[in-house]
Write a structure and sequence with these properties.
The complex is a heterodimer of chains A (about 575) and B (about 200). Chain A is α/β, with parallel strands linked by helices. Chain A folds into four domains: about 210 residues, Thiamin diphosphate (ThDP)-binding fold, Pyr/PP domains (Rossmann fold, 3-Layer(aba) Sandwich), CATH 3.40.50.970; about 100 residues, Rossmann fold, CATH 3.40.50; about 170 residues, Rossmann fold; about 55 residues, Alpha-Beta Plaits, CATH 3.30.70.20. In chain A, the strands form six sheets. In chain A, strands 3-2-4-5-7-6-12 form a seven-stranded mixed sheet, with helices on both faces. Chain A has a five-stranded parallel sheet with strand order 14-15-16-18-17, sandwiched between helices. The mean pLDDT of chain A is about 95. Chain B has a single domain, classed as Pyruvate-ferredoxin oxidoreductase, PFOR, domain III (Pyruvate-ferredoxin Oxidoreductase, domain 3), CATH 3.40.920.10. Chain B is about 40% helix and about 20% strand. In chain B, α1 crosses α7, α5 crosses α8 and α7 runs antiparallel to α8. Classes of the chains: A alpha/beta (about 575), B alpha/beta (about 200). The interface between A and B is large, with 59 and 56 residues.
Chain lengths: ~575, ~200
Amino acid sequence: MKQLMIGNEAIARGAFEAGATVATAYPGTPSTEIVTNFADFEGVYAQWAPNEKVAMEVGAGASIGGARTLVAMKHVGINVAADPLYTFAYTGVNGGMVIISADDPGMHSSQNEQDNRGYGRFAKLLVIEPSDSQEALDFTRQAFDLSEQFDTPVMLRITTRLAHSQTMVEKGEPQTPVLKEYKKNAPKYVMLPGYARGRHVEVEKHFEALREYVETSPLNRIEWGDRKIGIITSGIPYQYVKEVMGDISVLKLGIVNPLPRKMIEEFAAGVERLIIVEELEPVIEEQVRSWGIKVEGKERFTLLGEYSPEYLEQQLKGAVPPVGFGLEKEIPARPPLLCAGCPHRGVFHTLRRMKLKVAGDIGCYTLGALSPLEGMDTCICMGASIGTAMGLEKARGEEFAAKTVAVIGDSTFVHSGITPLIDVVYNQGTSTVMILDNDTTAMTGHQDHPATGVNIRKQPTNKLDIEALVRAIGVKNVRVVDPLKLDELETALKEELARREPSVIIAKRPCVLLEKVVVTNPIMVDPELCTGCKSCIRVGCTGISFNDEEKKAEINAGCIACGLCEQVCTFDAIKPVEV
Amino acid sequence: MMQDKITNVLIVGVGGQGTLLTSRIIAQVAVQMGYDVKVSEIHGMAQRGGSVVSQVRYGTKIYSPIIKKGDADIILGFEKIETARWLDYLKPDGMVIINNERVNPLPVMSGKAKYPDNIHEKIAAILPQTVIVNATEIATDIGNVKAANVALVGLLSAAVGIPAEEVEKAITDIVPRKALEVNLQAFREGRNRYRMAG
């Protein structure tokens, strides 16, 4: 019987049906649910790795060890894992290995919208792209066979819209996992220059074989229709093309690297106009042009963001956008924000109050950059905060460093904040680093990590002691504070910023969403004492709002009595409800 | 009772209001009834109190998982200004169900922007097929405020013409047993309200 599945669940199912027994990942929207779903199957091993590079290396080891292996990450995670990826493309596999790259056109939840099909071309990988959940399951399953057949890791490239759309899926019969024999084979798996030269020859051979294979692969197909227009497309844009273009001819690519040149030439010859519809970069278009084929592409379509059916209808058929109802002008924006009672709020309130420069990082706390907290100067990628703060110091001197902090979450610190902290100690920086330890990877939906002491299956495991780790690196000034005790936090910051040596302040308090909060000590605003100064409003909490008619602040139903606004109020107007 | 027509339902609200459960119930019912179904959701950053949208499409064959602007048959808005924000997705003769609930966004809370007055009435003035309901009140009267979204399922399912038995079956499958009776009551009351409004 068919059932609804999001793309990510279908990928996990496909890997399970293919007999994969090892899966490893670091959480990242839109890829997170792949390995959480895989972990629910019996008889398989699944794990959160500290970061994507480790995930890729564990995956490589598992494959060399003979197991079919799934490695999943978001697009920018592939950057972190690129080093092992490029060379694992040389060694090739033993058990099949499928790497999921979950791209995010439109940046629903990311810092860039890079197109990871480019990795396929660079690393000579087979890149497969499904268009719905059924294909996500089927293609994942086939990808394991192809990985073993062509001795190469296979990249399954998906986008947010596929990862998080539910479509109908018919499950298959799982095959029994086979653990392939392990044999020492240094020329294949030890990438010394002498051996690697030999492997490069093999990579080119395999890639030539793949060029042959893709011409007849069932993953690529031509749907002949009216031949006035022919469209080459793949992934989710295929669905939009089918939605709006009716009975035209379509070449649907399930494999986007390498491209089936003969098939494309045949298709081009069979239609009057050839158009390529691909989100982001002109990856297909540039190759097709290079073969001397006349094609329409990015001169008609944007390089930016996610496409939609109405966008294609406008670009391809000249459709006029609907006029709408004209109400949007008076609708205020609703930006995402930190939850009521979020411990990060105390930190950003204090950083803003102290007028500090803040090198930020990736997590819920990046929202501290938005109004009204506006407490962040930079945010580049996972783990960048500490290195960025160090660079600011080396460019502008210790005086500047005395007004600068790096802010990084616990999961992000473990991911890639440790080595830059070693750099600060080694190269005698004086940075003050705040580790916002909320005991979870919150933004992606509360996954565990090495410092929570719990594994992906919610079983207890060894717990990384961040404080001991930081001391072992050589940071002498380490203190733990409660981010919702503002005096304590401000004192710690003042003292540590004044030091001419590295300091780490661990702001420790669990994410408010981890456990259901029961408010035992509700608070209220005393209208007699409230002067309407709005200093409590400027902490940007959904638990308190300003009543424009009364010109007073008032507590909302969302308040969890974290005490932050009480501390901010200089008129003692916010206080416990008298029982 | 298959029909060739495709039904497009847009469910909008504020992260945390329970739009996801509602879209899943509707989608499950469409599956039970033998339709091709696609549902699109956005996870991650947008869930942190931001504006959220779920899109449910069903019919004999569905391609795009997202609804074209101007092509939604019905918009179910869990919150007033979110309904207005997404209104341009509606067909000119489409239907709107508005939960008469106000959740102030941050710019309003901090006094930087104004929450528009009577936005639900403005929508009703433009679109004759508008139903305004207070699902929180329905759920509170029944005795569990959390059942508000299932009351909205009652209205929505009646609006798109899905039989009550099919929805009750899906609710029974999805909702935990101890909350089932309250949720079924909320659902039935929602159906009732739709009939009264019609």
